[in-house]
Amino acid sequence: MRGTPRGQLKQVVAIYPGSFDPPTNGHLDLIERGSKLFGKLIVAILRNPEKDPLFSLDERLAMLDQLTRRFDNVRVTTFGGLLVDFARQVNAHAVLRGIRAISDYEYELQMALMNRKLEPEVETVFLPAAEVYSYISSRIVKDVARLGGQVHGLVPPLVEKELRLKLQVGEAPRSRRTKARNK
Ligand code: ADP
User: Fold this and answer.
1) Domain residues of the chain, as ranges?
2) In terms of Cα–Cα distance, which of 43, 151, 140 is closest to 101?
3) Distance of CA 80 to CAs 1, 21, 96, Å?
4) pLDDT of residue 177
5) For the chain, which has fewer Cβ within 10 Å, the N-terminal or C-terminal residue?
6) pLDDT for the residue numbered 30
7) Percent of the chain scored above 90 by pLDDT?
8) From atom 10 of ligand 1, which residue's Cα is the shortest distance away?
9) DSSP class of residue 87?
10) Using one digit for the tens of pLDDT, what is the confidence trace for 9-32?
């Protein structure tokens, strides 16, 4: 991978890896900012047989495909195995990760250092989460949705709809709020 230009971020292909189960507005904010920084951004959904996801790989791929259609330089795919091997395959020299809190940083730093040890030509770039999305994780969104809570504004409308279908929950919380207001 030596000899590839690294100075200009616009010439760099970056990977944004994750589980995206499901994609949230925090993820999309990072994708939008990453697409402006890098020449090309590959959103890569990890194929992880150990995790028991709510949405299948194909479902997550379809959602992210739709959600990123408006970005010309973003493409969505899946990968398995070592991230650095995938980076070599697609000629990527950067890995984009989001940092929500200090608790994210410890794990992310460990991953970044290990990846650099495995492939020094791939740099990890951390972007701080947008303040408004910094408390959002896929897990908390799933937990709230499972219990019938409102996830409007935390995930794109498409994901909101898919969550309702998957979990067979209605729009009860909003109508409950309206009823309370009308009392
Ligand atoms: P993981 O399964 O490793 O937690 P995720 O799919 O949840 O991966 O997230 C992928 C990347 O997106 C991680 O770098 C994570 O820190 C980042 N991320 C997740 N949620 C947010 C958010 N609300 N704002 C910014 N970055 C986020």
Assistant:
1) 6-136
2) 140
3) 20, 16, 17
4) 43
5) C
6) 98
7) 81
8) 18
9) H
10) 899 999 999 999 999 999 999 999
Q: What is the pLDDT of residues 95-120, one digit of tens each?
A: 999 999 888 899 999 999 999 999 99
Total residues found in the chain within this entry: 183
CB-based pocket (< 6 A), ligand 1: 18-20, 24, 26-27, 30, 97-98, 100, 104, 129, 133, 136-138
**Measured from the CA of 25, which atom of ligand 1 is nearest?**
23
> Among 3.40.50.620, 2.40.50.140, 3.20.20.80, 3.90.1570.10, what is the CATH number of 6-136?
3.40.50.620
Name residue, tokens 């067979």: 168
pLDDT for residue 48 is more than 90: no
Angle between helices 138-146 and 157-167 (to 10 degrees): 50
